[in-house]
Amino acid sequence: MLNSPVSALKGIGAARAKLLARLGVHTAQDLLYYFPRSYEDRSHTKTIFEAIEGETVCIKGTVFSSVTERRIHKGLSIYQLIVTDDTGSLTASWFNNRFVMNRFKKGEVYIFYGKITRIGGRKMMENPVFEPMSDNRQFTGRIVPIYPLTANLTQKALQTAIQTAIPFIGELAEPIPPDIIEKYKLSEIKFAIENIHFPRDFESYALARRRLVFEELCTLQLSLLYMKAQRKAQAGQAIKDFSYRSSFEKKLPYQLTGAQIRVLDEICRDLGCATPMNRLVQGDVGSGKTVIAAGAMYITIKNGFQAALMAPTEILAAQHYKNFVKMFGSDCNICLLTGAMRASEKARAADEIKSGNVQMIIGTHAIISQNIDYHNLALVVTDEQHRFGVNQRGAIAAKGNNAHVLVMSATPIPRTLALILYGDLDISIIDELPPGRKKVETFAVGENMRRRVFNFMRKNINEGRQVYIVCPLVEESESMDLKNASDFAEKLKKTVFPEFRIALLHGKQKQKEKEETMAQFSAGQIDILVSTTVIEVGVDVANANIMVIENAERFGLGQLHQLRGRVGRGGAQSYCILFNQSDSSLAEKRMKAICSSDDGFVISQQDLELRGPGDFFGTRQHGLPNLKIANLFTDMPMLEEARQAASEVINRDPTLELREHMLLKAKIAELMEAALL
Ligand code: ADP
Ligand code: MG
C-alpha cells in the first residue's frame, strides 16, 4: 500500500494531508522519500547534575509537581513543571503551550530534551521535547531526524507521520540491480530508507546516505544517458558537402585558433552522420564560440538546409542577427524572430521560415514556439545554454526532422560536473583564447577609491574608450543599500560626468529601446553604459575597455567573470573594477579569487568551494530536477562512481528493457517528468 494516500495512514487527517501536499508528499512512499535535512543526536542522557548551562541534552527525570500556569500578560502564559532525579532538580517550562497541562502524571518518569539555561541559580529547560520513559521512544534516546517544514506543520507532526509510514518499508522493491549493489558496496533500499530517517547510529546513517546519494546521482545520470541513447537511435539529416568549410574560413578577418579548428572538426564529424548531433561546446568568455556556431550554420545552409540560432536574451539575439547579416547576408536570407517583435512581424517571419525562403533563423525562445514550422531545419544552435533546460533540448530537436543540436555554454564548470550535468551531450572544449588578448586587469576596491576610479574613467573616455557600469538593481529598493542603475545613471549625468553621453539599459525596458541603446553603444555614440546584468552574456563591443561593477559582493563569481569578459575584446588594455561594499571575509576571499585568475574553469571551481554546497551549481539552473539528497559539491567522488555504474547499465541495455532495469526505468520516467515542470 505504498501508493495509498497519506490520509489513509493512522493519525493523518485531511488537514495534515493538505500540509504534507505542500511539501510534495501525497503517498506513503512520498513520506518515505521525504528526507531529513539534519539530525539531532538525542541518544545520550545525562543527570541533572551533569547537564551544564548552554548544553542541549536529554534528562531522565521524575515529574515532581503538577504543571502550573502563570499568566504574564494577555497572550502570554508560562507553564512550568518540576522534574527531579537522584542528583538534583530542574524546571521545565513552556510558553503558551496549554497542551502540556494534562500530559504528565506525577511520579512517573519522562525523558526531556532541550537546552539547559539557568535563571537565578535554578536549572531550567525551555520548551523541551518530552515523552514517557519506555523502550521504544520516538523523540528521545536516539538520533532524531529534523525535516524541512512548511508553515503550520510542526517537526513533531512530521516525524510522527514518517514514523507511521516506516512499516511500509517492507513493500519497497530494490530498484538497483544486484550486481551494481555488490560492486559499489551499497546498502539495500530497505535498510537505507529506514536508516536515513531513524538511524541506529551514525555509521548506519552514513551507509544509508551513501546508497541514496548513489541512487539519486545514478538515476539522474542514467536518464541523461538514456535520452542520449534514444536520440542516437533516431535518423537525422546527414550533411554531405564540407567544402564550404574553407569558404567560410576565408570570410573571417582572422585565423581560427587551434582549439576552434579542433572543435569545428568535431562538429563537422557529427553533422556528417545520419544520427543527430547533441554536442556541448564549452569555452571561456571570449574564446570565440559564436564563430564556431556561425561556421556550422553556414555549412548547413550551403547544403540546402535551414539552421537556427537561439539566444537567451533579446539583446543578444539582435546582436547576433546584425553580425550574421554582415557575414552571410550575401549568401542567404536571414531573419530575426523574438518574442518582443510585433505580431505582424512575427507572422511574416513565420511564413518565410515555413516556406523555406529564409535559411538562417536567429532569435530567442520564440524560434521554438509551437506556431513556428520549419521548412527543413537541420541544425539548431543554442547560445549560452545554461539558461535552457534539458527538456528544451528535446523540444528543439523535435522542431526539425531530428535536427542536429549544438549547445554553447559560457559557464565553464569542472569536468566531472559537466559530465553529470550534460550527461546527454557530447562535450567539446575550446581551451584557448584568440591570440593577442591582454589580460583584463582586475581590482577590488572600496568606496574610498571612488574619486580615483571616476578620474580613471574620465581619462579613458577622453582617449576615445567606452565604459560599462553594472549595478545589481534597476530601481530603488527600500530594504537594501544597493546601487540601482536608474538613480546612479541620473547622478552620474548630473554631478559627475555632465560632459559625457550616459545611457541606461535594463531588463524592464522595451525591446526597441534596449536595441537602440545597444546599437548606439556599439557605434560609439554612448560613453558610459549603466546597466543591470542584461549585458551579462555575450554582448560584444570591442571599444569598451572598462567594466565597473557596483556591489560586486552581490554577484556570483561566475557572473563576475562573465561581466568582466565584456571588456578586453579589442586591442586596448582593459580593466575591471569591482566595488566591494561588504567587509565580510568571504566577500574578500571571493574578490581575491576573481582578481587573481582569468581562467573561467579555475574560477568556477573556486566559486564552488567558496560558496559551498547547493548554491551556484543548483541543478535547477541547468534545467535538471532538484536533487533531494545528493550534494554536487561534497558528493563529487561518488558522482564518478554513479556515472560509471550508469554507463555500465546503459551499455548492456541501451533501451532499458531488461527486467532487472524495470524499476530504474520507472524512476527515470518520474525524474524526467519532474524536470519538465
Ligand atoms: P564567446 O566565446 O564569449 O561567445 P565570441 O564568439 O563573442 O566569444 O568572440 C569574442 C571575440 O573574439 C569576437 O569579437 C570575435 O570576433 C573574436 N574572435 C573569435 N575567434 C577569433 C580568432 N580566432 N582570432 C581573433 N579573434 C577572434
Ligand atoms: Mg558568446
Task: Walk me through the structure.
By secondary structure, this protein is an alpha/beta fold. Among the domains are: 98 residues, Beta Barrel (OB fold (Dihydrolipoamide Acetyltransferase, E2P)); 151 residues, 3-Layer(aba) Sandwich (Rossmann fold); 157 residues, P-loop containing nucleotide triphosphate hydrolases (Rossmann fold), CATH 3.40.50.300. The protein is 37% helix and 19% strand. It has 21 helices and 23 strands. The strands form 4 sheets. The protein has a 7-stranded parallel sheet, with helices on both faces. Helix 5 crosses helix 6 and helix 6 crosses helix 21. The chain is globular. About 1% of the residues have low confidence. The structure holds adenosine-5'-diphosphate and magnesium ion (MG). The site of magnesium ion (MG) has 5 residues, from helix 9. Adenosine-5'-diphosphate binds next to helix 9.
Compact summary:
With 677 residues, this protein is of the alpha/beta class. The protein has 21 helices and 23 strands.
